[in-house]
């Protein structure tokens, strides 16, 4: 079920990990679909709802090459599904369908991966709707990028600034520093509406709060201090936290 979060932006949220899909809708019904998710049945429902509203998917964007952010369906049209060059390369190098089947068994996954690399140094998506600026936001996954809609003050963040997941770090040297720089970069943007990849949509004040909470989490993680972070109450998030605490030599 689509929920309108800004005049030209709609979101659906899966009960699984509160994973979001975002639609940016132009006046003529052309849609930019960001990170459509989650199950094959969810994607068929989303395609039907778009059609039922008289809209059409004109372009798509994947924020990063984790399997739950590079999904597609035969029920959706064959449009470019852009990703940064690094993200597209990473998704091509991994068996994402296998990871999907492992993480969320019992589905016949239609399309996982297969994104189209944006031309290098692309700063805005070339589509006819509201301006969509590609903001490189490394730290969580290779080639991770958020979309900022400057005319709408909307940030489609990808796996950042979540109220249900702590910062989950990419498996690379320097990921913590990358992540801190990403948080600073996002804090400079004008954001009235934040759509995280997992969790609840936020207003400007809540977005600022999440930036602070994520900085604190990273400070505690690197200092070897147990974070006082409500998100660690979820056993799945707790397990990810323990794994990355060990990885940082705690
Ligand atoms: Zn992710």
Question: What order do the helices and strands come in, and which of them pair?
Answer:
Blueprint: E1 3-6, E2 9-13, E3 20-25, E4 30-34, H1 40-52, E5 56-61, E6 71-72, E7 81-83, H2 85-92, H3 96-103, E8 111-112, E9 116-117, E10 133-136, E11 145-149, E12 154-158, H4 175-187, E13 193-196, H5 204-223, H6 235-247
Parallel strand pairs: 4-5, 5-7, 7-9, 12-13
Antiparallel strand pairs: 1-2, 2-3, 3-4, 6-8, 10-11, 11-12
Helix pairs in contact: 4-5
The chain binds zinc ion.
How does this model look, in words?
The chain is α/β, with parallel strands linked by helices and 250 residues long. It has a single domain, classed as Ribonuclease Z/Hydroxyacylglutathione hydrolase-like (Metallo-beta-lactamase, Chain A), CATH 3.60.15.10. It is built from six helices and 13 strands. It has helices spanning 40-52, 85-92, 96-103, 175-187, 204-223, 235-247, and strands at 3-6, 9-13, 20-25, 30-34, 56-61, 71-72, 81-83, 111-112, 116-117, 133-136, 145-149, 154-158, 193-196. The strands form three sheets. A seven-stranded mixed sheet has the order 1-2-3-4-5-7-9, covered by helices on one side. A four-stranded mixed sheet has the order 10-11-12-13, with no helix packed on it. Strands 6-8 form a two-stranded antiparallel ribbon. α4 packs antiparallel against α5 (204-223). The longest helix is centred in the C-terminal third of the chain and has 20 residues, at 204-223. It starts with a strand and ends with a helix. The mean pLDDT is 95. Bound molecules: zinc ion.
